[in-house]
Write a structure and sequence with these properties.
The protein has 241 residues and is of the alpha/beta class. The chain is built from six helices and twelve strands. Helix 3 (118-148) crosses helix 4 and helix 4 (185-197) crosses helix 6.
Length: 241
């Protein structure tokens, strides 16, 4: 059950779950705040915790409001698109052939049949973006399986509005946001390591932080860079404490 605590004009949704620690999250794009607390937590205790973090909440909300956002893409000639953190101009070629995407060192070329609507162009581009991720992800999983001593039973690519990734420790799977194809490759690797570490420690506990410190010491810098890059036209990332 979800309850709401009101602190001045700030409303915070409180949910109790079977977790060890309190998780306070500020969600883009508008800075909506949620708090997940252990099952036995009294509402007044959750309220006191939120009050103690008011300064942090305000800072994160201000960062989200100031953070650059991509304009919605139309998939037309000379439009800017990103792959692995690099900017490309889109070239659109209309011809009676199977839709596909080509990449060279300066541009992305979208080949579609004449009269192809925007929705179909977007579908072709998204399919191509997924192929880029499918080529990049397995080698990284294999690399970190050896380093972390874990086994990933499978991974899934998914458009997610509030997370860069997810993990199901019970079945050994991880999920990755398809928007990661737009970000530098090292940020994709950070998210993969983060989610794979949850196979060892499911919560964001001190043990989890220690695992990241040991195996991926620059994780804090990677997280900060990811959260500072432009958001998509839809809200994707999240900010947690």
């Amino acid at each position: 059950m979800t309850e709401t605590i009101q602190i001045g004009e700030l409303a915070i949704e409180v949910t109790r779950k079977s977790v060890k620690n309190v998780h306070l999250t500020v969600h883009p794009p508008q800075g909506h705040v949620t708090l997940v607390a252990p099952t036995a937590t009294r509402l007044e205790v959750a309220r006191a915790y939120a009050i103690s973090k008011l300064g942090w909440i305000r800072d994160q909300q201000a960062k989200l409001q100031a953070q650059a956002r991509e304009t919605p893409r139309q998939f037309v000639e000379r439009e800017t698109h990103y792959l692995w953190g690099r900017r490309y101009l889109l070239t659109v070629i209309e011809k009676d052939a199977k839709p596909r995407v080509k990449l060279d060192h300066r541009q992305i070329t979208l080949i579609v049949r004449p009269g192809t609507p925007q929705e179909k162009r977007e579908e072709v581009m998204q399919g191509w973006s997924r192929t880029q991720l499918h080529a990049a992800v397995p080698p990284l999983i294999k690399k970190w399986e050896a380093r972390l001593g874990v086994k990933v039973s499978g991974y899934f690519l998914q458009r997610m509005k509030t997370k860069w990734g997810g993990c199901n420790p019970r079945v050994g799977t991880i999920r990755l946001n398809t928007e990661l194809a737009k970000k530098p490759r090292d940020l994709l690797e950070y998210i993969i390591v983060h989610e794979m570490a949850h196979l060892i420690e499911p919560t964001h506990s001190q043990r989890f932080t220690a695992l990241l410190d040991e195996h991926y010491p620059t994780w804090r810098e990677a997280r900060a860079e990811l959260n500072e890059l432009p958001l998509a036209a839809e809200p994707w990332g999240e900010v947690r404490v």
